[in-house]
Amino acid sequence: MNNRLLSALAVFMATAGLLPASAPASIPTGKPEPPGPLVVTTFVETAEEIHWASVMVESLRTFGGRLKDAPVWIYASEGFRAAESGRLARLASLGAEVRTGRAEESVTWFPLARKVFAAAQAEAEAAGKAVILARLDPDTIFLGEPEDFILPGGKDLGYRPVFHRTISPLYEEPLDVYWSRAYELMGIRASEVFPVVTPADGDTIRAYFQAGCIVVRPERGIMRKWEAMLALLAADPLIKEICGTDSRKRLFTFQVALVGAVLKGLPRTALHAFPDRINYPIFFKEIYGAKRDFLDLSRAVTVRYEGLLANPPPDWDKKLAGPADKIAWIREHLARQD
Predict the structure, then answer these.
(1) Is-contact 224 158, C-beta < 8 A?
(2) Is the pTM higher than 0.85?
């Protein structure tokens, strides 16, 4: 029985004459409140991402089933919070909590680094308050109860592979100078690397994880290790030199750091590969090219739209298959102007 219920019971008993008038209004139990099952967190740094995050929160509250009331923590830099206080207030009105994210400026030369620091901060703040922390990008929409996020016993991290290989070598290919140096810095041995298959193209590549949907047990510290690995890579002169001439490697260094955090932070037996109903990337083929389509929402629980629907082509919704009411919900809420 939680403290709130015990307090209410004590007040009732006192007013009913079942306790002396001097009885306390609460009965101390000596036990802390148990952690909730799930906290969802994301990071925003543009006005457009605030809108996306508001849709994410509303979709969770609408379609999230037993997890619909999970706390949502949205991080933004201090300066951005001040500049966008009006828009951010809408997130608070939806029951999300807006928090100030902080990052090491020496690392933010690498794009998307601030989301890594926000994830580490959220993990530290979730320890003891949540059994599971789900780190999502704001262009995520819930279409069902995310029960997959409640990891099975013995599993400490849930992941999806990157959508397509981007800068990753194929599993059988030799490492280039960048990857060799990254592995060396992060202490990754060849025996620790396992193959994953990209959802978009079916390529078999070295372990490489989608940072837009990563689910952890906070006490394992994987998000904090991600931050440490990124700082390690960012400080290396050779990595910086390579990234200075290769914009794609510079862009994805934050995600390479996640490889180090996972492979050095957990045994493979503690990793849980989510099915493709999680982080389903609608219109991915239309945006980036792919060998398969992602147009059927019949089984999707969470979807990603990679910004395409910020300025969608005409009749985009008619290209999707699946529950008509959910497709209509997506169209209505993404079209709304916050």
Answers:
(1) no
(2) yes
